[in-house]
């Protein structure tokens, strides 16, 4: 489920995103036509002895209630947006989003990253201040040979992934900037690269621990800024580092417990799963929700599991 990513050439691209314009956000549409027609109306211009009652304000139709769909608090929603709104009801300070990365051969299926960017990120404009993207930016002062050796170790893990994954992470960062949410990369120090090289056969484990450590440190720094109260920090990466209750032996791979404690429990772990990518394999069967998921039921619904407090798994509708 968990894979690694790196980015060197695109460092400047997202570094430019680190300063979002003040007040940036989605524009609010207003209608001047109605005001103009009222001003020119002879009826509106004539004085009256009694003020006309204002027209009733149209009320949005309430969203249909989700349907229970089994164990682990399973709920089936008509749309992914409704399921996402349900997840945000606790108003978290940190929203840690994990995904099952798209693999080679699945290019025809919209990825979790693309769906988050298009469906969910706009709903966070004005609510979130920052987005930490699990992409690495190498410090140019680091030993190039050491950086190259680390990248070689990564390729053994990422070679089965879709070639579009890194570009979609970049697109996520750009869209966040457009919406007024400042994107951030992970920037390992030169000492971090040296430690990974020295780890030898345990290099992948060292990388996993480093990702969790750097993300936690960055998130806490963002949360601690003056004036940051009330704003959400989003962490986006693989569905392992965000675990609020990591499996035994994987505690050092996850920033979930540390950030949950730092926010006084205002932490939400959300895993995004593309239904078409779910396989009958050992890695999938090990997930706590897998035995309770029936891919043939609620195929046109967004299925949301709640395996533990503050932990959610959102499975997109089939063919969406």
Profile the largest sheet: 9 strands, mixed
**What sequence of helices (H) and strands (E) makes up the elements?**
HHHEEHEHEHHEHHEHEHEE
Query: What general form does the structure show?
Result: globular
Low-confidence stretches: 1-51
The secondary structure category is alpha/beta
Q: Helical proportion?
A: 25-40%
Radius of gyration: 23 Å
Roughly what is the average pLDDT, rounded to an integer? 82
Residues in β-strands, percent: 15-25%
Give the beta-strand count: 9
Helical element count?
A: 11
Q: Roughly how many Å apart are the termini?
A: 21 Å
Sheet with the most strands: spatial strand order:
1-2-8-9-7-3-6-4-5
Determine the oligomeric state from the structure: single chain
